[in-house]
């Protein structure tokens, strides 16, 4: 699946089925196609949260790179919500989501998003770390939010870019990183590999 022709080549493969990550790449005008990665996302015993997301992003990039045409850059990312070294993934069910939202309410937590770019024979990585604070939700709010369907496939059981935005008291860090693809770090990795972001090309032309 190819992004609109108005975006800037060369074509990157995004190793993710996330519509949010695709929208973010389109936002900075990076031409891309999609091939979702299929890796075991279980956390290793004793694995630190930062090491965990970096490893998964790298494994996703390499997994998809092995199936792509030689030389095509493959971009992957992984996000985890972390509260005092406990990693909150996607909720298993309604009760799990309620417990996550209860634990996060009124407390600062970190959102870690690792980005990996497999290009040629190397894999470069970067890590975005943001601090988020949700307000305390009532039982009725948690129930209504679950019924919306939004928390079902979101790390930490909330989406900052969706209905969950009304629960966010403050954010320090990268908004796009909390969404799942930190654009500052992503653009740096792409440009270091010789893949320009269309947005930066436009800005450079405007300064000329």
Essential attributes:
seven-stranded mixed sheet, Maf protein, 208 residues, 26% strand, 7 strands, disordered N terminus, 34% helix, alpha/beta
Describe the structure concisely:
This protein is an alpha/beta fold and 208 residues long. 34% of the residues lie in helices and 26% in strands.
N-to-C span = 34 Å
Give the amount of beta strand, in percent: 25-35%
The number of helical elements comes to: 7
Large-scale geometry: globular
Instruction: State Rg.
Output: 18 Å
- Tell me the series of helices and strands, N- to C-terminal: EHEHEEHEEHEHHH
Task: Write structural notes for this entry.
The chain has 208 residues and is an alpha/beta fold. The protein has one domain: Maf protein. The protein is built from seven helices and seven strands, in the order βαβαββαββαβααα. Strands 1, 2, 3, 4, 5, 6 and 7 form a seven-stranded mixed β-sheet that branches. The longest helix has 17 residues, at 49-65. The chain is globular, with a radius of gyration of 18 Å. Mean pLDDT is 91; it is low at 1-9.
